[in-house]
Structure formats: structure tokens, C-alpha cells
Design brief:
By secondary structure, the protein is an alpha+beta fold. The chain contains four helices and seven strands, in the order E-H-E-E-E-E-E-E-H-H-H. It has two domains: 12-88, no CATH class; 97-153, no CATH class. Strand 6 and strand 7 (81-83) form a beta hairpin. The chain starts with 14 loop residues before the first strand and ends with a helix.
Length: 155
């Protein structure tokens, strides 16, 4: 059973993605980035170390090194200091969903992929233009299985 909603998810924290500094990183060979911000009325100013990996088709990809555990990550989360998701101890929002909520999320994702209006109360729509018939049939079977699973939870 997933943790109850009293547990924090990563959506509760400010994000610092490395992509925010993409242009700055393209211009030079940076080893760290200086950050300065205020969190809960307390000012912070420090530098976060960077590392880079080579890409298969040339160039480099930059990563943060977590100030706490020195793991490589693309996004840091603010809990006073910016740290990785492992150090912050928070879960993804989907990890906190209850089983019935997960069924609703999966049904809505299927409806969106099929181009139908979101919400189980709406009827089944037509096959989206360009979607292969076998893909459409497979998604319909999956949709029907999820709908039956949802109905069984109420009985």
C-alpha cells in the first residue's frame, strides 16, 4: 500500500534543473555554478559542483553533483540547500497514489492517448486518425480491462 498523502512528494519542493543554465554552460568549461537565493527568510549563497559526460554524437551533457551525497543528477530540490531527490527523501507523486487513483490515472492517460475526452463518464470515441488498427484494438482491450478492474473495486 502506498504512503498516505501526508508524505511529501517532489512537487512540494522548488526545482533547480541543470537545463536552466544551458546557455551559460555552452559558453565555457564550468566546474561549478554559484547560486544565491532566500528560503524561508534565510539567505543562501554557495556554489554547486558540476560534472559532465560525453554524448555519443559529440558534445557534453552537464550534471549537478549533489552537495550532500555527491551523486550525479539533472535536478536538485530545495530543502534549505539544494539537494538530490534521494537526500530530500521525497517520493514522486505517482508513488503516493492509492490503487484506485492509479486506475483513474491510467484510464485518463489511455483516453488522452486515444484522443478522447478525459473522464470515465464520457463514452468511447473513434480511432484517432493515423493510429494503426492493431494499436487501437490493443488500447481498447487495455481500456476495457482497466474499466472492469475499476468496477470490481466497488463490488
Amino acid at each position: 500500500m502506498p504512503a498516505l498523502a501526508t508524505t511529501h512528494s517532489l512537487n512540494d519542493y522548488l526545482k533547480l534543473p541543470i537545463s536552466r543554465y544551458r546557455e551559460q554552460l555552452r559558453q565555457g568549461n564550468a566546474q561549478s555554478i554559484e547560486v544565491s537565493y532566500t528560503h524561508r527568510s534565510k539567505p543562501y549563497q554557495y556554489s554547486i559542483q558540476l560534472t559532465k559526460t560525453s554524448c555519443n554524437y559529440g558534445g557534453n551533457r552537464y550534471w549537478w553533483l549533489c552537495p550532500k551525497c555527491y551523486q550525479r543528477t539533472s535536478t536538485l530540490y530545495c530543502a534549505g540547500l539544494y539537494v538530490c531527490r534521494h537526500c530530500i527523501g521525497a517520493n514522486y507523486g505517482s508513488q503516493l497514489q492509492q490503487p484506485i487513483d492509479r486506475i483513474y490515472s491510467n484510464l485518463n492517460a489511455l483516453r488522452e492517448r486515444l484522443g478522447w475526452q478525459v473522464g470515465i463518464i464520457h463514452g468511447i470515441g473513434e480511432r484517432p486518425k493515423g493510429m494503426h488498427h492493431s494499436t487501437y484494438e490493443r488500447l481498447l482491450v487495455e481500456y476495457e480491462q482497466l474499466t472492469n478492474k475499476l468496477i470490481r473495486t466497488f463490488y
